Amino acid sequence: MIIASGFVELNDTNDIERIIGDLIAHGVEVSETKDGKIVFLIEKESTEEIKRALDSLTEIDGIRNVNLAYYTLEGSDKE
Predict the structure, then answer these.
(1) What is the pTM of this model?
(2) What are the structural domain ranges in the chain?
């Protein structure tokens, strides 16, 4: 399992509830909101799936930037 975490920056904080709904619909866990930013967590089976999920976030209307802060390496959960 690959885990990625980061935050999205919004164009307008008035859209926050709609964008949270869109993120959840994309299979993204929302953990916090603050100052026009939404912190997210994504869990997928491969780095390719993580990349596709992150790329799909850029298509959500109202998101200005997608910032990746942390991710695990593939195979890091195995000895």
Answers:
(1) 0.86
(2) 2-64
E strand intervals along 1-79: 2-10, 29-34, 37-44, 63-71
Taking 50 as the pLDDT cut, the residues of the chain under it are none
Kindly calculate the radius of gyration of the chain based on its CA atoms and give it in whole angstroms: 13
d(CA 5, CA 35): 18
Which position has the token pair 């100052």? 35
pLDDT tens-digit map of 25-41? 999 999 999 989 999 99
We find that the CATH architecture of domain 2-64 is 2-Layer Sandwich (3.30)
